[in-house]
Amino acid sequence: MYSSAAKTVKDGEWLLDSIIGFYFEYLSQTLNLEARKILLFQPSIAHLIAQASEIEYAKEALPPEVNDMDYLFLPTNNGDSENVNGSHWSLLVYEKSNNIFRYYDSLKKANLEPTRILVERLCILFDCEKTNLIIEKSEQQYNDSDCGVYLLLFAETLIKKLLESLEKSKKLIKINGLYDSHGSRSTKDALFSIEKFNNSENSPCSNFDKDLPDYSNNNAFDPSNENFWDLEELSYPPHLKRKEISLLIHQFSK
């Protein structure tokens, strides 16, 4: 299905929206993202939201599960009604719980204006109050063709950090016994019981917390800390991501 667009994955080529859509779908399925309340938008839907003459048209195209999600990832380009494909990709992330939009661009602020338009329209669709658009630190490209690859790298890096954060939170909850055997005890009651028990002189768990890893100070996996969202340096280079995507396309084209 994607074999005709596979040539755009080669070094020096500009990724087509079909490749970005393919990789977003791959991440969503393999990482079971919707169950973790992370939604990756297809490029065509993001473009429709930004360019539709009537905002109601875009509303009808939204995925039905969008209101249940905590994080939205939207691939953004500078295309318009006359030039649908555009010439540059960037990433927009919406953190719904804090009503914050985060903008990642591998070419300084090249897509800032189309991103602002997209944010304005998303606020209409989601009935947002006044919001913040944060220009995040992003690793920069050194050519004129890697923007789409960086979009995918930014998205995948953030997704894996979010999943890691969720897993660490679950471990802490389980360790501290915030749920009873039926999962019905409230967090407040559980915390009170744990504190009362651990403070007792005969408690065998009085020193238990000292042996636990301190995740609270690990900014790399704490979404409430701004350092969490910093992508100024990535651990995976664009040319390797191109090879990885090429292998995936070959695998799914068989």
The description of the largest β-sheet is: 5 strands, mixed
Task: Tell the overall outline.
Answer: globular
Q: Helix segment count?
A: 7
Portion in helices: 25-40%
Strand content range? 5-15%
DSSP strand tally? 5
Name the CATH superfamily assignment. Answer: Adenoviral Proteinase, Chain A
Strand order of the largest sheet: 1-2-3-4-5
The sequence of SSEs as H and E is HEHHEEEHEHHH
Task: Give the averaged pLDDT, no decimals.
Answer: 82
Total discrete domains: 1
For the termini, the CA-CA separation is 9 Å
Radius of gyration: 21 Å
Q: What's the CATH topology name? A: Adenoviral Proteinase, Chain
Would you give an account of this structure?
The chain has about 250 residues and is α/β, with parallel strands linked by helices. It contains 7 helices and 5 strands. The protein has helices at about 15-30, 45-50, 55-60, 110-125, 145-175, 185-200, 240-250, and strands at about 40, 70-75, 90-95, 100-105, 130-135. Helix 4 links the parallel strand 4 (about 100-105) and strand 5. Helix 1 runs parallel beside helix 5 (about 145-175). The longest helix has 29 residues, at about 145-175. The protein is globular. The model is unreliable at about 180-200 and about 200-215 (pLDDT under 50). It comes from Smittium culicis. InterPro entries: Nep1/2-like, Papain-like_cys_pep_sf, Peptidase_C48_C.
